[in-house]
Amino acid sequence: MGKTAPTIAKPVSNDVRLRRLYRTMLTIRRTEEALVGLLAEGLIPGFIHLSIGQEAIAAGVMDVLTPADTITSTHRGHGHAIAKGIRLDKFFAELLAKDAGACRGRGGSMHVADIAQGMLGANGIVAAGIPIALGSALAHQTLERDAVAVAFFGDGAMAEGLLHECLNLAKLWNLPVLFVCEDNGWGEFLPTAQQIVFTLDRLAAAHGIPHVPIDGNDVASVAQAAGEIVANIRSGGGPAILDCHTMRVGGHYEGDPQRGRDPGDLAKAAARDPLTIAAKDLSNAAVAKIETEVTADIAAAIAFARLAGEPGWDDAVASVYAADAA
Amino acid sequence: MGELRYNHAVNRAMADAMAADPTVVLFGEDVAGAGGVYGATRGLRDRYGGKRVRDTPISEAAIVGMAVGAALSGLKPIVEISFIDFMTFAMDAVVNQAAKMRTMFGGQCSVPMVLRTQHGGGAGSGPQHSQCLEAWFAHVPGLKVVCPGDPASAYGLLRAAIDDPDPVIVVEHKALYATRVPEPNSLPILSIGKAAILRPGRDLTIVSYGAALRAAAEAAGRLAAEGIETEILDLRSLQPWDEGAVLASLARTHRLLIVHEAVEAFGIGAEIAARMADVGFDELDAPILRVGAPFMPSPVAKALERRYLPNPESVIAAVRRLLA
After folding, report:
1. Which of B129, B173, B264, B271 is catalytic?
2. What does each C-alpha distance from B295 to A122, A303, B316 come to in angstroms?
3. Among A132, A123, A152, A133, CA closest to A54
4. Domain B3-182 fold
5. Which chain B residues are closer than 8 Å to A120 by Cβ?
6. Which listed CATH number (3.40.50.970, 1.10.3720.10, 3.30.200.20, 3.100.10.20) goes with A15-273+297-307?
7. Cα separation of A168 and B61, whole Å?
8. Which residues in chain B have Cβ-Cβ distances shorter than 8 Å to A166?
9. What is the pLDDT of residues A159-215, one digit of tens each?
């Protein structure tokens, strides 16, 4: 693929921090596994895109953000929402399109957002979240807030011209924005190697933007690299790209039969599971405790979501414009 | 007493809004240094600084997407897209993002952004710089669309758009920027969704907006010489549009003609005609007629463009059919 070799970042040695990172990753993993069951039960409208195997990126990046920092996400955005702090009960209620959901059941999987937490939305349109993060960064800069914006996107979005426009503008205006590429090797149903002739490091170089490649399945490395980069952005250093190499375990959407995918590729992904990698540096007792707690949290959230009421028609119809506007 | 020019009214609206609210910012292609293709943003960077008034690269998709993010994060951005034809590159940010967010995110946020742009022909600018695409935006739930036809509305509607918590597309007209009126005694902020009667009349109603109002007014003047009294309603706001005002006028005149510069087929006029054929059915003494551009791209040649655009003759011909 001609990709730049990942930077070796120092591992996160702080045990408390690694346990926090592991907990976030496990919460994402167990949440998405539960979604598979709920989808099969027919409780989730539409289709869902899972980030199983990619949890280290959401967990690692969000660990260095503050509540004032903002992010935009992708169609594969459950992990971003959870890591940014959405409440699990509101998350599950949203996925089940219930009135108690974070978006009152009007967004669902592909548009889950928690504005108060700085999560400005998953997005059903590839690359569309990137300029929104830039605009948020522009607001941080203009209003002189101590905050950064982060644009998550997949390697498939590299083929969108909008990414180039945004890299150019971010550098031109020295915006406090971090571009995080979740490079899982796929753009929808086609390997990105069959779609894209350039590499992100060369695109970054063309725009004069620092590019840091990282093993996106090693949460300690992601957190370490993100911490250094975000600190530099906060101090006025301008935009940067964190290029996270990862693997998509599932298909493009849940239920994708993944025809034509090399079985060896899936075995490789299993061997690089970010949870397994992180667990190596944790005690068995710590891992078991987190598992028990996360399982209980998720069970409670799902119970809440199942019992939550359906959204009302009149409320939905009245939601298109502000009530107090002309 | 001075005069008020349309582009100066647009400028004053932004200047007053920026003075009143430090979160109002302006960006777009050539808005800062050059002062806008039609001079509507001249001097604003000098008054409010380069942080709030910025030139952008030619990246419509990115700058409109940025406006969405800025609006979500505490700014009230005004973006100038110098020709409505260039909005095609920005449609995702407008249609899939800005328009949807209030509903899609369950009311967690507003998207208080304004897209200022201009449409229309008359300058021989051809197929990619003369279109009237406002109906596209009026068709999208979540967007508001206004179309000022005179300097006072240009001021009042833009102020209202900037104050509005939802995304508003302000469609100016390139042929109106140099038009002027005596300086009004006051320049009120107008209400989005309200039409205005420009000329009262008892025999028929012409509903129009933007530069097409001029053809309607000229036609009405000539018809008055024959004793035909035309009521002209300036819609001002296309989404939402003032159904009550149109119906009230129809109830007085019982005949309705809709005049716009946009292509007639599937346009704003089609929506108005359909609604009036429903709620105004009992008031109608004649079929509802429309005058709009034929179903073809805007011509470059002056003679063809003259024929393409609504003009007093095409309006009068429609009125004669209406009264026949």
Report:
1. B129
2. 39, 57, 20
3. A152
4. Rossmann fold (3.40.50)
5. 69, 72-73
6. 3.40.50.970
7. 13
8. 62, 65
9. 999 999 999 999 999 999 999 999 998 888 899 999 999 999 999 999 999 999 999
Print burial letters for B69-107: b (CB count within 10 Å at least 16), e (below 16): bbbbbebbbbbbbbbbbbbebbbbbbbbbbbbbbbbbbb
Alpha carbon distance A266, A269 (integer Å): 5
Q: Provide the number of CB pairs (under 8 Å) joining chain A to chain B.
A: 159
Nearest residue in chain A measured CA to CA from B61: A162
**Both tokens of residue A104?**
């009152």
Cβ-count burial A156-167 (b if 16+ within 10 Å, e if not): bbbebebbebbb
The pLDDT tens digits of the residues spanning B106-118 come to 999 999 999 999 9
Hey, what are A70's tokens?
Answer: 């903002």
Q: In a 3-state reduction of DSSP, which class is residue B35?
A: coil
Closest to A106 (Cβ–Cβ): which among B73, B92, B103? B103
Kindly provide the ipTM of the predicted complex, given to two decimals: 0.96
- The continuous run of DSSP H or E covering B53 comes out as strand B53-55
B60 catalytic per annotation: yes
Q: Record the tokens describing residue A164, joined without a space.
A: 């180039």
